[in-house]
Each structure stands twice: as structure tokens, then as C-alpha cells.
Amino acid sequence: MAPRLCSISAAARRVLGNPGPRAGDVAAAASTRFYSKDNESSWFRSLFVHKVDPRKDAHSTLLSKKETSNLYKIQFHNVKPECLDAYNSLTEAVLPKLHLDEDYPCSLVGNWNTWYGEQDQAVHLWRFSGGYPALMDCMNKLKNNKEYLEFRKERSCMLLSRRNQLLLEFSFWNEPQPRAGPNIYELRTYKLKPGTMIEWGNNWARAIKYRQENQEAVGGFFSQIGELYVVHHLWAYKDLQSREETRNAAWRKRGWDENVYYTGECHLRQSAGPLGHLRESCIRIKGCNSFYKEI
After folding, report:
1. What topology does CATH give the domain 59-294?
2. What's the CA gap between 277 and 293, in Å, rounded?
3. Where is the NIPSNAP domain (predicted)?
């Protein structure tokens, strides 16, 4: 047993004879390593993060089109399932008249029923040429339109709920125009983090060029009244297979993935779905990820 005790004692003396670094030295070294790592990380991030210059103007001034004063209203109507056909017939009989009446400064851009997404839903998109004054002029005239008041009364019996938003269009997007059909329409909706709308616009101003080859970009809008920090992108495709091919082609283009990455950091929630087709009407465009069919 003696040799074992001597061996242990010798090992203990070797350890005690070579004391480790003092506590102060350890703290200093740790601090140096932490500082160096943090600086390196910050420097590395600065190479890739797009910085947005601080702005003093409102989003609506910086992002919307200057040459036009169009205001848009989007309506979402959740219809009782058993009333959807009657609802579509009623809207087809009344809404196109407002679209064609020159006394009303509004035009019906599109009517849709949801194909995939929230079922038994109707979506209407209106354009008011002249901005808020045109909207108020139209609303005041509708208060005295007996046919429209009867329409609203009859429609109310068919609805479960409804909501709307007032929108402006992004300056770098196409203005919705008539197009040959039939088409399906996809409405992709993004809820942005407050304060990131300008960054979103900066990135999509570059990204939209990757999505123009098949003329699939219909319109891009951001909310002004209603739920705020909301963006809607409206796309049109011949069918679902065409949608798949068009989106895959965008991913093969250099730069598209980078724009998707940076806009992904801006939004909190995303939804998408196809809009279906509308039946005969004077609608300007046919067919939302909701996918929609035109009524």
C-alpha cells in the first residue's frame, strides 16, 4: 500500500506545484474572448443585412404612386353556405351597375369566391379614382340610392360576417388591368412587423422584376385603414400547373432567394389562397393563397 500512497502524494504535489490562472486572469480572458466574438459576429452580420435609411415621411407618401391618387377598398364577406348562389346572383345584378354608372367615381376591379382557403367567402376589390374625396362622394350618393339600400338589406340576411380595408397600391407594382381569361387568382396576405413597411417595399421593388415574365403580377397593396401593417399581393395564373411552373422558374433566377429571405424577416404572419372565377359580369379582372374564382 505504501507505494500507492507515495504515488498519490507525488501527484498531489505536482498539481499543487503548478497552480492554475488566477481568478482575475480568467475573468479578463473570458471578457476578451466575449468581446472579440461579439465584434466578429456584428461585423459578419453587417456584410449581409440590408440597412434602411431612417425616414421622416409617411409610408403612404414614400411607397404609393405619385402620378395617380387611386384608393382601393377590399371587402371580405363570409356567406352562409346555403346562400352562396343567391348571394352571387344578387351581386351580379347590382354591383356592375355601379361600375358602369359614370356618376359614381368607383370601378369594380374584381369579384371572387374563395376556391381554396376560407370557404363560402366572397371578395370584392374596388378602385376609387380621386382618393378619399372620391370615396366619400360615392358613399354619400349610395345613401340615397334606393336600389342599393334594398340590395344591402337583402344581402345582410345572407352574411355571417364581413370586414374591409382601405388600401394604397405600391408604386413599383402594376395597376390592375383587364386580362384575357379564364384565370385563377392568388391573394397572398402578409402581416408585417411594425416599422418594416419601408424595408418590405425596398426589397420588393427589386424582387418584382423576377415575377414579370408571365405577367402574373396583378397588383400589390398595403393597408391604410382597417387592420394596419398588412400587405396584399394579387397574382393571376392560367391554372395551378402554370402557377407551379412560374414560381419554380423564379427560384432559378439569381437574386430571388435573397429577396425572399430578407422580406421573410419583415412579416409576422402569412396566408395565401386561390380566388375562383366570377361568372359573367363587367369585372375588370378575373378570378386569391387564398385561391379565388370569379363570381
Report:
1. Alpha-Beta Plaits (3.30.70)
2. 3
3. 185-266
Q: What three-state secondary structure class fits 294?
A: strand
The structure's pTM equals 0.71
Q: Report d(CA 236, CA 218) in Å as an integer.
A: 6
Report yes or no: 238 and 183 within 8 Å, Cβ to Cβ.
yes
Domain ranges of the chain: 59-294
Check residue 57 and give left, alpha or beta (phi > 0: left; psi -120 to 50: alpha).
Answer: beta
Residue with cell 353556405: 81
- Write out residues in the chain with pLDDT < 50, as ranges: 1-21, 23-24, 26-39, 42-52, 54-55, 267, 277-288
DSSP for 140-193 reads: HHHTT-HHHHHHHHHHHTTEEEEEEEEEEEBTTSPPP----S--EEEEEEEEEP
